[in-house]
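Re: that chain you flagged

S.,

Sorry for the slow reply, it's been a week of failed gels. I finally had a moment to sit down with the sequence you sent. For the record, here it is as I used it:
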Amino acid sequence: MMSAARPEFRVFVAVSLDGLIARPDGRLDWLPGAAADGAAAPVGEDHGYAAFVAGVDTLLMGRETFETVKDFPEWPYAGLRVVVLSRTLSAADLPPALRGTVQVMTGSPERVAEQLGRLGARAVYVDGGQTVQAFLRAGLIDELTVTVVPVLLGRGRPLFGPLDADLPLTLVSARVFAGSGFVQSTYRRAAS
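Prediction finished late last night. Pasting the structure tokens below so you have them in one place:
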């Protein structure tokens, strides 16, 4: 039996200057344009997000990220296959409005990659700190776009965690957004 091709896994994330993606309690209120409830909200300029999303067909997020976005007044991921990676969440736990739109998966990053390949996923947006870290440790992240926001938080949830070995990356592009002060770098996993 022929196996499906492994999709490409991409990250697009904002971090504070000290490498944090959220406050200790998960709030994102430090992001410019954040909503009153601490959730991320669009800033005047999308900083490449629309082009990034146009290049993916699947969004894979962790349960904690899903808990943050599931109650947004408008579902921001229309048109994408959305998969939540969770050991505790089931399809029955999904809000009724998202059943049929969101799928729950469990398993190792390698197993999830295999399942997504069988579903026909070609380009997957990986979101959520723990999920990104797990896929980095598994060597599955192919592209990493990190936008540094000029703020120091001092405490919070880091984007990166321990790795078993160095993960060499190649810089693809770097861009400065003068209006916001954001600095965005895109890296590809270096060829071995």
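What I noticed first: The beta strands are 8-16, 20-22, 58-62, 81-85, 102-105, 123-127, 141-149, 157-158, 169-177, 182-189.

Talk soon,
D.
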